[in-house]
Amino acid sequence: MMDQIDFESLRTSCIEKLSGSQGRVSELSGFLGFDGFIDEIIHVVDKRENAKDYTRLGTIEEFAKRVLGAAGRSSNIELVTQRTKIGGNGPIMANALATFGVNVTYIGALGYPDLQPVFHQFAKNVTTHSIAEAAHTDAYEFNDGKILFGRLTLLEAVNWTNIKDRFGTTEFMKNLSGSDLIGFVNWTMIPHMSEIWSSIKSELCHTLTGPKRTLFFDLCDPAKRLDEDIKRAVELILEFEPYFNVILGLNEKEAYEIGRTLGLQTDQRNEDSLISLASEIHRCLPVSTLVVHPVSFALTVSKGSVCRVAAPITLTPKISTGAGDHFNAGFCLGKLLGFDNSLSLLTGISSSGFYVRNAKSPELHDLIKQLQSWESVSP
Fold first, then answer.
1. Domain annotation covers residue 25
2. Taking the model in full, what pTM does it have?
3. Residue 159 lies inside a defined structural domain of this protein
4. How many domains are there within the chain?
5. Domain annotation covers residue 222
6. Alpha carbon of 321 to those of 88, 118, 186: distances in Å?
7. What is the pLDDT of residues 233-254, one digit of tens each?
8. CATH (domain of 203)
9. Which of 98, 105, 249, 280 is the most buried (most CB within 10 A)?
10. Quick check: 251 and 293 in contact, CB under 8 A?
């Protein structure tokens, strides 16, 4: 069964609820980890006009044709760095939550033994504990998406031994048991993440007391990982459900990859098939909430019900790297504030929508303004 959502009514309700929640956000706390990247946002030059001016390749298809055209004869492709910024699913999501006003603690690969300079401002907004050197990503951005080239070797130091030695089991347990939101993200790029999850579950979860808290997982494009590793990862995620209200977040590509790994039908690629696939994934992985966020809409599957909310899109984003992390931050904010799935989805859509249009994380009042500025979209 899919819930029918009227966008105008939902937008009005979301504005009202966010406006009435500004005092509550500062009382919320989050504990996230474990990755960390230095991101270079890059445009690919199509034509160089002079020393200062150029036109860029606008689409991934144009870039692919340029690369394919070099086969057998080589080529020179010019790259222009637009900005260098904090990267990684964890830091971007943590920074977005902190910008809303949530009190966030972050543990991850931000530079070791000293923070990398790119994370200094981040450390002013978030309580940081770095256990490893940061990795690096070259993010080639186009109007229709992005291609990320990562250098990940340094993330081998993100492991349970270093977490215990450089952060401490007692401190980890304090944050695990005392935070409103816990987020373990970027499984794909952290080679020891499954071992970390397994150790947390076996060594710490049995000591948890009190009400269930919210635990968010993001796999991050698992296509390059072996099927057996992916299956083990999702099994581990499900094993946290007795201790937490587990949210698993997937973008469209990740949903099809998880579906294929689970042996589900993934041949058809359209909106209806994606909604059906999400329901089948949730049947196989009955976490509290499954979230899937393509570009033009987002949906949840929870307790046998599907909720879908349309997303007003822009054809000229200022930035796209980190859009999914901002959606995740906004969705989790809604859940922490007690919003239902439809309102949480719209909060997530508003967060990513503001970010791609303005190339910065929104404050709470920015979410409200973003909602006020959007015209109605088709269901």
1. yes
2. 0.90
3. yes
4. 1
5. yes
6. 10, 16, 14
7. 999 999 999 999 999 999 999 9
8. 3.40.1190.20
9. 249
10. yes
